[in-house]
Specification:
alpha+beta; 190 residues; 6-stranded antiparallel β-barrel; 6-stranded mixed sheet; 6 helices
Length: 190
């Protein structure tokens, strides 16, 4: 039963950092930021540290005590010694989708990746496929699209669309659709 609970937790978490080496005598750790929203690091917010063992994943709940953005040091209430901090070295640090939405404010026409993943990609009312993931290459986010079944016979099973104005017309996360232009040409050339 515990593994089902951990799987459900994992499915609702967003990775925000990787924990590094222990620093000092009071359990501080280096924190390698992965998120575009460092404002998520709010005192008393609950985070989840997941070890990526080759045998199994182990998730530990932690409450943030302090975060120094300049030094990229993080301290949790539950971690008070260098020895306990060392057990978390290289763990992925995640937070809930709810806390992400609560603390990370978006501008107009900005979206969280977890809201875009799962959207249908349309061009001129033709379904090109579904967003399965997003990858950042240099400064551009690329949507990884699983090609629609009807188009798979002619084209590749997956392709990338840069998330830039040249290709993306509108994103509607309520209806889980992305309207595109020139994206089919990318599919045809893939």
């Amino acid at each position: 039963m515990k593994s089902n609970i951990q799987n459900n937790i994992q499915n609702t978490l967003i990775e925000v950092a990787r924990l590094g080496k222990s620093v000092g005598l009071h359990g501080a750790m280096k924190c390698h930021i992965l998120t575009d929203f460092p404002e998520i690091f709010q005192t008393n917010t609950t985070f989840f540290a997941t070890s990526m063992s080759s045998f199994h994943k182990n998730t530990t709940s932690l409450t943030l005590k302090s975060f120094d953005s300049k030094k990229q040091l993080i301290i949790f209430h539950e971690i008070t010694t260098p020895e306990s901090a060392k057990t978390l070295t290289n763990c992925m640090l995640s937070c809930s989708i709810e806390d992400t939405k609560k603390y990370c404010h978006l501008n107009k026409d900005e979206f969280f990746w977890f809201d875009i993943i799962g959207c249908m990609v349309l061009e001129n009312n033709e379904k090109l496929g579904k967003v399965t993931d997003i990858q950042r290459i240099t400064n551009t986010d690329f949507l990884i699209i699983q090609t629609d079944e009807k188009l798979c016979k002619q084209y590749t099973k997956t392709f990338l669309i840069p998330y830039i104005n040249q290709f993306i017309l509108t994103t509607d996360i309520t209806n889980k659709t992305i309207q595109t232009q020139n994206a089919k040409a990318i599919l045809e050339e893939s």
